[in-house]
Q: What sequence folds into this?
C-alpha cells in the first residue's frame, strides 16, 4: 500500500461525489423536511447533476474536476448551499492545482483550504447545527492524525469517524444559523441536512481516495 | 407522490416557465438579458442614474421581478422557489443596471442572499462597478429589537425599493440612494400571520402544517415559524394581535404619518384583505397615527399560503415625497 495516491483522472473522484449525492437525493430532502423546506436533496442533486453533464467522459485533473463541481453549484443552484459547497470545492481545487499525486499532507492542505474558503463567506461556527459541524471536526481530525504520523489510510478512517460523529452531534443541537434557526428549541431532535450531506461527501472522498491506494 | 392540482408543465421548471410568461405578457416592463435568471427594465441602463438591483427566491410573486419598472427596480436576479439567486445572477443584474453612477443592491436578510450578494459585489468591484447594499430587516417577529440585524426582510422591502427607486430617478447619487433606502427600511416594521401551508411544486407536499382553526402569528415568508400558534381570530382581533408587537417598539407614536402595506400570502381572497385593512385603519385612527397612503393586495406572497402580512413605514418629508412619486411596475402603479 502506497502513501502516495496517483490520480490519473480527477473525474473519477468527482463522479463518486456526484453519485453519492444523487443517490441520496430523497433521503436528504426528507431530513430537510423536518426543519427546512424539504428541498436540500433536490437542490444538491440538481447542482451535482449539472456537474455530471459538464465532466462526463472527460479527462481532467482533480483540480479541474473540482473547479467544475464548484462552478456547477455556485452557478447552478444558488441558495445557501451553492455558495457554501461552492467555496469548499474551490478551496479544494485551488489547493491541488497541477497535482496528479497526493500525499496525506496534500489532502490535509486541501481540506484546510476548503474550510478557509468557507469561512470567508460564512460566519458559521461549530455548534450552529449546519454542515460546519461535520466539516470542521473532519478536517481537524485528519490534521491531527497526520501530526501523530498515522498512515494515510488510518487518517482517512479517523476523518470518516469524526465526520459521522459531527453529523450525529447536530441531532441534539438548536439551530443557530440559516432558516432552521427561526425554530429555536423546536429545531432539536433531528439531524441537520447540510451536516448530513457533508458527511456523505467527506466519507465518499475518503473511500474514493482509499480505493486508489490499492 | 400525490398529483398536485397545479397549472404547470414540469415541477422542476416552474421558475423558467414563469419567466417566459412574464416577459411575453409585459414586454414594456421586462427585457431578457444574457443571463436567463436576470430580467431588466427595457430602457436600462440609463447613463448617470444609480442602478437599482434586487433579487430573491421565486414563489413570492409579484416580488421580486414585479417591482422592475419605471422609477423602481432596474434589474432583478431570480432564484429557485424560496432559494436565493446565484452570485452570478446578482452580478449580471448589477452589470445590467449599471449606468456609470454605481448600483444600489436592495435585498432581504437571508443567509443565502447575503452570501451570494457578497460574492457578487466582490466580482462587480473587480469589473469596475461600485455596488453598495441595504439589507432589509423589517420583520419584528423574527428576532427581538436588540438583535435587529438578525431580522428577516419581508414586505417592507417593497417600500425600500419604492423609496430607493424614486430617489435614483430623482437624481440622488449612490450614497444618497443608499442612505434613503436604509432610512426607509429602518422606519419600517412588518409582521405576518399564516393560516395554511404551501407546497413547493418540486417537493410535492406541504412545507409545514397549520391545523385547521389555528393561525401562526409571526410566520415568515417561507413558513418559518413565528412567535406562537393560537386559535384563529376574527379580523378585528387579528389586526390587534399583529399591531401589538409593531406598535410596542415605539416607532409609530401618536401624530406620526405612515404608509401601510397589507399583503395577502397567495391564497387570501382580496376581499378579506380589505376586511382586515378596515380593522388596522380603525386601530391606527384610535392611536392617532395618520395613514398617508395605503396599499392593499397581493404584493408579496408565499406560493398558495393563506394569510396576511402587515407592513408600516413611518414618514418624514423626504420619505413622503419619494413614496408619492409616480411609479410603473407590475406590482405597483401610481401617478
A:
Amino acid at each position: 500500500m502506497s502513501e502516495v495516491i496517483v490520480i490519473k483522472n480527477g473525474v473519477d473522484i468527482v463522479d463518486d461525489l456526484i453519485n453519492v449525492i444523487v443517490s441520496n437525493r430523497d433521503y436528504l430532502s426528507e431530513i430537510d423536511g423536518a426543519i427546512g423546506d424539504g428541498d436540500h436533496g433536490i437542490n444538491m442533486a440538481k447542482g451535482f447533476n449539472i456537474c455530471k453533464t459538464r465532466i462526463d467522459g472527460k479527462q481532467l485533473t482533480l483540480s479541474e474536476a473540482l473547479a467544475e463541481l464548484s462552478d456547477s453549484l455556485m452557478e447552478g443552484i444558488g441558495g445557501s448551499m451553492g455558495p457554501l459547497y461552492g467555496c469548499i470545492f474551490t478551496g479544494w481545487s485551488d489547493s491541488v492545482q497541477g497535482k496528479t499525486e497526493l500525499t496525506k499532507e496534500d489532502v490535509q492542505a486541501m481540506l484546510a483550504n476548503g474550510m478557509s474558503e468557507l469561512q470567508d463567506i460564512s460566519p458559521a461556527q461549530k455548534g450552529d447545527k449546519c454542515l460546519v459541524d461535520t466539516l470542521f471536526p473532519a478536517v481537524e481530525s485528519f490534521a491531527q492524525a497526520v501530526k501523530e504520523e498515522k498512515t494515510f489510510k488510518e487518517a482517512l478512517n479517523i476523518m470518516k469517524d469524526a465526520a459521522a460523529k459531527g453529523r450525529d452531534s447536530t441531532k441534539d443541537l438548536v439551530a443557530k444559523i440559516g432558516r432552521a434557526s427561526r425554530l429555536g428549541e423546536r429545531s432539536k431532535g433531528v439531524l441537520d441536512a447540510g451536516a448530513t450531506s457533508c458527511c456523505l461527501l467527506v466519507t465518499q472522498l475518503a473511500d474514493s481516495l482509499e480505493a486508489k491506494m490499492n | 407522490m400525490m398529483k398536485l392540482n397545479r397549472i404547470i408543465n414540469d415541477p422542476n421548471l416552474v421558475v423558467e416557465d414563469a419567466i417566459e410568461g412574464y416577459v411575453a405578457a409585459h414586454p414594456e416592463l421586462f427585457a431578457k438579458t444574457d443571463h436567463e435568471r436576470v430580467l431588466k427594465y427595457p430602457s436600462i441602463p440609463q447613463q448617470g442614474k444609480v442602478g437599482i438591483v434586487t433579487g430573491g427566491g421565486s414563489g413570492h410573486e409579484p416580488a421580486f421581478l414585479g417591482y422592475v419598472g419605471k422609477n423602481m427596480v432596474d434589474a432583478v436576479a431570480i432564484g429557485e422557489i424560496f432559494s436565493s439567486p446565484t452570485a452570478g445572477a446578482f452580478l449580471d443584474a448589477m452589470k445590467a443596471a449599471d449606468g456609470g453612477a454605481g448600483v444600489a443592491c436592495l435585498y432581504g436578510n437571508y443567509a443565502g442572499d447575503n452570501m451570494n450578494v457578497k460574492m457578487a459585489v466582490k466580482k462587480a468591484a473587480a469589473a469596475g462597478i461600485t455596488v453598495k447594499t441595504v439589507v432589509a430587516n423589517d420583520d419584528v417577529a423574527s428576532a427581538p429589537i436588540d438583535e435587529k440585524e438578525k431580522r428577516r426582510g419581508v414586505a417592507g422591502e417593497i417600500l425600500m425599493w419604492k423609496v430607493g427607486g424614486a430617489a435614483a430617478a430623482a437624481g440622488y447619487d449612490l450614497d444618497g440612494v443608499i442612505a434613503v433606502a436604509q432610512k426607509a427600511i429602518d422606519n419600517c416594521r412588518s409582521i405576518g400571520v399564516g393560516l395554511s401551508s404551501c407546497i413547493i411544486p418540486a417537493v410535492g407536499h406541504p412545507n409545514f402544517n397549520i391545523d385547521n382553526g389555528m393561525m401562526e402569528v409571526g410566520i415568515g415568508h417561507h413558513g418559518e415559524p413565528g412567535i406562537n400558534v393560537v386559535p384563529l381570530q376574527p379580523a378585528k382581533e387579528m389586526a390587534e394581535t399583529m399591531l401589538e408587537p409593531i406598535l410596542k417598539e415605539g416607532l409609530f407614536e401618536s401624530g406620526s404619518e405612515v404608509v401601510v402595506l397589507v399583503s395577502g400570502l397567495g391564497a387570501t381572497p382580496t376581499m378579506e384583505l380589505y376586511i382586515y385593512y378596515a380593522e388596522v385603519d380603525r386601530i391606527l385612527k384610535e392611536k392617532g397615527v395618520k395613514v398617508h397612503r395605503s396599499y392593499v393586495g397581493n404584493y408579496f406572497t408565499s406560493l398558495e399560503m393563506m394569510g396576511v402580512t402587515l407592513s408600516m413605514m413611518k414618514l418624514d418629508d423626504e420619505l413622503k415625497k419619494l413614496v408619492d412619486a409616480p411609479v410603473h411596475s407590475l406590482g405597483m402603479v401610481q401617478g
